[in-house]
Amino acid sequence: MKNIFPVLFLIINVSLHGQVICFICKEVTSTSALHRLKQYLFCDYDRDIIPEEKNATKIDFGLSIQHYNVMWKQNHLTWKSSEFDSINSIRVKSYEIWVPDIVMHSVTSVGIDFEMPPVECIVFNSGTVLCVPFTTYTPVCEFDHTWWPYDILNCTIHIASWSHGSNEIKLNSLDTEQILDDMYNNNTEWEIVHMSHSERTIDSKFGSGFTSDLLSYNILLRRHYSMNSTTYVTLTIVLMTMTLMTLWLEPSSTERMIIANLNFILHLFCLLDVQWRIPFNGIQIPNLMVFYEKSLALAAFSLMLTSILRYLQELHVDAPTWISSVTESVLKSKVGQVFLITILDSKVSARIEMNEDDNTSLVSLDRKQYTWRYTNIYES
Fold first, then answer.
1. Does residue 247 contact residue 256 with C-beta atoms inside 8 Å?
2. Which one, of 179, 173, 178, lies nearest residue 158 by Cα?
3. Where is the secretion signal located (predicted)?
């Protein structure tokens, strides 16, 4: 009766695992060196147990745009290559060995994978394990649209072990300079300007005085110059020119009224277009939006001023006394005389040249005819 229990135990293990458990795992014989090596390494191996080391297991973590690589060492996975036909490395599935639970700790709306995606890892005879899984990290990004459409994107990724403390896992970041030469440089919308990383120790989420190593990657991206960006810059120059042209032309001219109305309408269209194209996030208001708002105010002012001046020029009544007095005092000054010569008609200019010593009666003689005109030009 006592001898039946070992037999039952053997039958159960065969049915569950499909093979007999070796009590002496390192004594294996096979015709294939690779098969013998895998039996030698994994016969008594438990993938759920963290490698037992004197110090914390050192994990080298390297981040790239399309993947990341993790490297660490396990003393259990060592062998002498001379005993296995000079095999220096083998490939194993990531779910067959213990892998560190390195996950992203940034707060995003995308779910977090707590396990490494299934991938083939390389195990070297020294016990070093290298895994390069393909995964997607969604970082937390801070948008700076100050100089939109040449805006900047500042993204941060925090990487750490989910359940192991710094006494068990020591995270070490690899060099990030190679990332700038990655395939992401072919992206037609964004370019990587700078990438840096930092290492620090934080309090573990489990509390109880435990700490964890945290790797922080900061990626600075800038939008590429494009035809779309050039269009907005060109429009700003065109709108500024139209506003200045409106104020330069004669108030009575039809061209001024046409340009003033067209300028105001174009400002409305540009402002609406920019409002829909600029993302509704960011830490500052884009300068382009501020420009369009202030330029729209100037365009509206120039349109109203043109309408008022055109109305005043059509008046045939005498101007109020205070307006005539102010206009007369300005035009009698030296600056006013130059103003008359350079701006007004040739008759007034000729009269000033004939009587350079005394022009004080010039305005008073033509007050009824020229007061509103002088006032309009002076205001415009």
1. no
2. 173
3. 1-18
